[in-house]
Design goal:
The protein is mainly alpha-helical. Helix 24 packs across helix 25. The longest helix is centred in the middle third of the chain and has 31 residues. It is extended.
């Protein structure tokens, strides 16, 4: 099937899918928030409305379309089955390359070239790679030949010969070596574990690619997919690496593989089992990593955070609050869409709190207040009145602090009318900090509202009733515009602050 026909088929299916989706959506009316400006506030996922009504016909059609597309053979797949292997592999590949280079948009020519090179690479990889590495296509729009054929041809030969069997040609050419590193990570994920990395590491030694093989970024990727049961072998290998940067790369990657791994590495650091320079640099990095490990003991997380720059003198209460707040944010973003359910009345406040206790069982009693505050900041954007009971257990001073800080660290996804409604529900600001927080809220809203609503937000600000909020909204509007376009900011200032005759 030609590329043109394949695209036509895909377009036909997508039109049908779009029609089904439109029908399903309009037959499930959604409640709009009063006064909302288009586009609607950003939420966890652009598909959340679909999820709230089940999968629907659109999802079934999409699954059927994907299945049908997976069954359609590309021209490359067809030629692999039908094109006979030439007697002169090199001549056939060179001829096919020249033909494709003369017509680079010809799908048949491109597919035939890939198959001819596949035949050659299978039988004589050294000669084939010599050609691929020097084949000039720079005068076309396609760049170097190697990356163009790697996803099909290189990967297929690696699959047939295995990683170890492919090393002679993979390590000889930089264009292929990048694929070796990717394939190594995939092989580890598939069950090879750190053991397959060690085998390849031994084989790569002494080749031109040895230095690139031990780059810190690649070692981090290796650490991320290593099994916890292989920790001792991984640590032994890390200690033998030539530089602290490489050692940290591997160990930091391993700390990201699981909370258990991060916990183990922190113990090594605390017990002095690593070299001083490595332990010092790793401890700071682990202090950031513990933000992603909610299963770790809170005392260890706090101690690790204190090792990071800027956190050395923070109160324990402050650090716990930051950790718990981050855990809750990740839980609500990555898991079930509790925010959306809370806004639409599908789930109650008790439901959400219960889900947090189940999903984050490691929150200590001293973190309860932080949990309620973090949840309030998340849920007040969806339904401020319904979220308010989360603050019932706080002192009056703390409660006011949370309410006023919500003007700038919450309500980022709400439209201006809802933000004004929230401001109207707040008590009158008394302290300078409360006044500053309320003013800061307009600064934080200006950028987002300009990006989302453009000139509509400008008109909305102009129509605000006179008062301190309008003054601050205008100031923030001019300030945010000046960052992007000083000339437009001056024009806007003239509009908003018209001179009296």
């Amino acid at each position: 099937m030609s590329r043109k026909n394949l695209l036509l088929l895909a377009a036909t299916h997508l039109l049908a899918l779009g029609a089904a989706y439109s029908f399903a959506r309009h037959n499930h009316p959604q409640t709009e928030r009063a006064g909302e400006m288009n586009p609607p506030p950003q939420t966890k996922s652009p598909t959340r409305n679909l999820r709230s009504h089940g999968e629907g016909d659109g999802a079934l059609l999409l699954a059927a379309f994907k299945k049908e597309q997976s069954e359609i053979k590309s021209r490359y797949e067809e030629l692999k089955e039908t094109l006979p292997v030439a007697k002169d592999l090199k001549a056939a590949a060179v001829e096919a390359f020249a033909k494709w280079k003369g017509s680079p948009n010809d799908e048949d020519a491109f597919s035939e070239m890939k198959v001819r090179i596949l035949h050659w690479l299978r039988q004589n990889p050294t000669d084939a790679m010599d050609f691929i590495a020097t084949a000039s296509v720079n005068d076309s729009d396609f760049g170097d030949l190697g990356p163009l054929i790697a996803p099909d041809v290189f990967k297929e030969v690696i699959a047939e010969k295995g990683l170890l069997g492919s090393l002679p040609w993979l390590t000889k050419y930089p264009i292929a070596f990048a694929l070796l590193r990717t394939a190594t990570v995939d092989e580890m994920k598939a069950g090879g574990g750190f053991a397959i990395f060690l085998k390849l590491d031994s084989a790569v030694k002494g080749t031109p690619c040895e230095e690139a093989w031990q780059q810190a970024t690649f070692l981090t990727a290796i650490g991320k997919v290593a099994r916890f049961s292989e920790k001792e072998r991984l640590l032994e290998y890390a200690k033998g690496l030539p530089t602290p940067g490489q050692q940290q790369g591997l160990l930091l990657g391993f700390s990201q593989s699981s909370g258990q791994a991060a916990d183990w590495l922190l113990d090594l650091v605390e017990h002095g089992e690593l070299e001083t320079e490595l332990a010092s640099s790793l401890k700071g990095a682990l202090g950031n990593e513990v933000l992603n490990t909610p299963t770790m003991d809170m005392d260890k997380r706090v101690a690790a955070r204190r090792a990071t720059k800027g956190n050395e003198k923070k109160f324990r209460e402050t650090i716990i609050g930051e950790i718990v707040g981050g855990d809750i944010n990740k839980l609500l973003v990555n898991g079930r869409d509790w925010r959306y359910e809370f806004r639409n009345g599908v789930s109650s406040l008790d439901d959400v709190v219960g889900a947090v206790r189940v999903g984050l069982p490691g929150i200590p009693s001293e973190g309860e207040e932080a949990m309620h505050i973090a949840l309030y900041h998340q849920l007040s954007e969806e339904n401020p009145d319904k979220a308010l009971p989360l603050l019932d257990g706080l002192s009056e001073e703390k409660r006011r602090e949370v309410l006023f800080s919500g003007t700038w660290n919450s309500y980022g996804n709400n439209n201006p009318d809802d933000f004004m409604s929230f401001l109207g529900s707040l008590p009158e600001p008394v302290t300078q900090k409360e006044k500053d927080d309320r003013a800061k809220g307009w600064d934080w809203k200006a950028r987002g509202c300009l990006d989302r609503y453009g000139d509509d937000y400008v008109e909305w600000v102009k129509a605000m009733p006179p008062g301190a909020d309008k003054d601050k909204a205008m100031n923030s509007l001019v300030w945010a515009t000046r960052e992007q376009n000083p000339t437009k900011a001056r024009e806007l200032s003239d509009q908003l602050y018209a001179k009296k005759p």
